[in-house]
Amino acid sequence: MSKLTLSPAWKALAAHREKIARTSLTELFAADASRAERFSIEAGELLLDYSKHRVDAEAMRLLAGLAAQAQLPGWIARMFSGDPINSTEARAVLHVALRSVDAKFPEGRDVMPAVRGVREHMRRFVDEAQRGGLKGGDGRAITDVVNIGIGGSDLGPRMLVRAMRKFRKPGPRLHFVSNIDPADLEAALAGLTPGTTFFIVASKTFTTAETLDNAARARAWLEAALGKSADLSRHFAAVTANAAGAQALGVPPERVFPMWDWVGGRYSVWSAVGLPVALAAGMNAFEELLAGARGMDAHFRSEPIERNMPAVLALLEIWYVNFFGAEARAVIPYSEDLRDLPAYLQQLEMESNGKRVDRDGNEVDYATAPVVWGASGTPSQHSFHQLLHQGTHFIPVDFIVIGGNGESSTGQAALAANALAQGAALAFGNPAPGAPHKALPGNRPSSTLLLERLTPRALGALLALHEHKVFVEGVIWNLNSFDQWGVEHGKNLARTLLPGLLEGRDAAGLDASTRGLLARLRKRD
Fold this sequence. Notes:
Mean pLDDT: 95
Strand order of the largest sheet: 1-2-11-10-8-9
Number of strands: 11
Structural class: alpha/beta
Strand content: 5-15%
Low-confidence stretches: none
Shape: globular
């Protein structure tokens, strides 16, 4: 057994779980008239109500003890000081520097001159594009920008461009391509004019197969329409740590926006990877996004564990995953603008903590990251809420609710009413005497994250909240949350299989199933 599961804090939680399992949320609310207030935390523009969770004051005290046992405050200090806590890659984890306004940060390794330089580079580029000064090879103003990336170079910018669409500024239209399937690029380019289309190629290493394939197709599309002699370099920018790779594609040096090895892909939207966000909503709105994240960083660094919003969310998830057997969590934003948030959180959480070996190289004997899934409400109510209310799976839910958003409308009120109703129904159920098919058992936990308005600042805080939540879970589970070796092997294997499809090379050494499928696919070609 591991040190974690043998630890006093773990054993105390396992014992307390037996008490909580016999207690309903109805009873917990009945016993404490101020429960909703006491089990809520406010940080900047966010309010977390976790009163509908199956915890009492003792459970929260014991969970905080688990975090203290893992030396969470020390790990927070190590991350913010630039220690190489990404141990398998010997890298610091300094995405927090991307939103810092400190003159020097961190102590002993000042990265701020580089961060400020890229931010100013972004501002100049965005200003050029929004005033119509960004021109293609034939001198026409750029009307459409296509972001080519995958994973963290796609999910964050794509999600935020949609979430911040109410703040859209005049300028080029934004489009996103991530899938290596040629149909993705074809669909994005349908109706676009090559002479007025610009591509941002976002890849930290500039070796990502999906991104480079799509970039090559984009260049071929331009060349077919504009001719080989056209100045195609005027149609490209790149966000990368591999400037030489970008220039080999034909990206001019002045349009290469640097990244650094201390920024993980799924934490990179605060960097020039967020360039599409700034192009859509303006650089001022992008800096408001950074300010919201910076405020959450300050909260995370300074608040005690019991009142620390990211820590509390992480501890609640650990409570359910490790002591109640939960294998999934649903994220349901009651906002069409946040429709893409569940997909963004899937990568952030499952790529970070979907691991079975701890920092010491030992296989764990406890569950780690749950499956994260979800969709926007109210459409999800007519899809999978049936399972949440009456199904056999135990699935905690995060509801994300926007306040009036500066508007007073029946639609906004209906959204909020539906979200609150779902949380209440999960918690307290519906006995339906004499009609068991109508009965909802209740006692199913949920959080409500309330944003007064969907502003760039609130969005920044919301994303940073989840980044730090993932970090806390990794500390307690003793995981390196900042590598993704499980992703790398599949990509490498695909590279070895591709010649078998394209050139019919010998498939020796492959398993019988893969050999048979390769043969069948070649036959159909």
